[in-house]
Amino acid sequence: EVREGNKVLKRFDKEVLNSSICSKETVKKAQQLLKDVVEKDYGTGHRMYSKNFSMAGKTGTTQKNYVEKNPDKLAYISSFAGYFPADNPKYSCIVVIHEPDKDEGYYGADVSGPVFKSMAQKIHAISPMVDEVDSKNIQDADLEKEYQQYYAEAQKKYNTIPNVKGMCGMDAVSLLENLGIEVEVHGNGKVKNQSVSQGTNIKQVKKIVLELS
Question: What pTM, to 2 d.p., does this model score?
């Protein structure tokens, strides 16, 4: 738009000349080349390779002062521009380091690459892993039967100790603890024996031992 101070004199509609800089086929080829930089043995960024997650990008090394004749005074800019995960990109980043210590190295793969990898590793480590489940409505007949048995028992009002033999251990513990009774469990599985008999007045019971098998 054209303005005169805060006054808009003329507006122009946006015109998209080309929605993409290149074809999808070309994009795929470029992505493969960027992956090869890290994954292939001959790639300039291969020392960044990690089997735990994929990265792609391009190393860069630039000399700053071309007119300088003294090699001791030459200065460089090291860079690495990339993204990860390589197959399903979520993050992109460019690391640019001005005038790195030449005694330690000045190539992009030696200086900027490790910084990029370190950041990528930290982000990867704190990113949640998501697994897709085909169906949330998974039915288990035995589990449903046990739940219905527990639910029916839990709805009752008890003045005496119920019979929990045959119940799943976790359900029996939940039922008895909700009655205010301390429960001690031995074993795993379903209740085989209970230390306090069915029908005992709850007020007389502080603790019950369940044997599971």
Answer: 0.53
